[in-house]
Amino acid sequence: MLNPTGGKEAVVEAVKQIVKTAGGKPCPPIFVGVGLGGTMDRAAYLSKRALLRDVRLSHSDPRYAKLEQDILAAIQSLGIGSGGLGGSITALHVAIEEESTHIAGLPLAVSINCWADRKAVVEWKEGEDA
């Protein structure tokens, strides 16, 4: 839970510290999902949902898109690198999903996926059997 008066800098620093603590354990380069707002359980849900976003896309709100870029730059500055062996690329993408929240706190949750992040889509057309 962040103090809402900490601003964007507090969000960037919190995510950076979480990634720093994880180090090479999640098998970087990583994908980072950030959930902001709601309640703590909603923030956790949002961080997972953020990982489902197409990595070619940034947040639709330019303020959050900029925050995604700032977080990615902060993560790269850690120098954890591929496989945790050092290097300039620690993360491949940062995605943020947000929700309104109470003014007294700012729930933050971070979910991390390894480089082998996989997604699939299944579509059923009307009238087809599953």
TrEMBL record:
Membership in a protein family: Belongs to the class-I fumarase family.
Gene it is expressed from: ttdA_15
Record carries keyword Mitochondrion: no
A Pfam family reported for this protein in Swiss-Prot or TrEMBL: Fumerase
Primary enzyme class: lyase
Sorted UniProt keywords: 4Fe-4S, Iron, Iron-sulfur, Lyase, Metal-binding
The protein's Enzyme Commission number: 4.2.1.32
All residue ranges annotated as the Fe-S hydro-lyase tartrate dehydratase alpha-type catalytic domain in the record: 1-122
Record InterPro entries: Class-I_Fumarase/Tartrate_DH, Fe-S_hydro-lyase_TtdA-typ_cat
A molecular function GO annotation: 4 iron, 4 sulfur cluster binding
Name of protein: L(+)-tartrate dehydratase subunit alpha
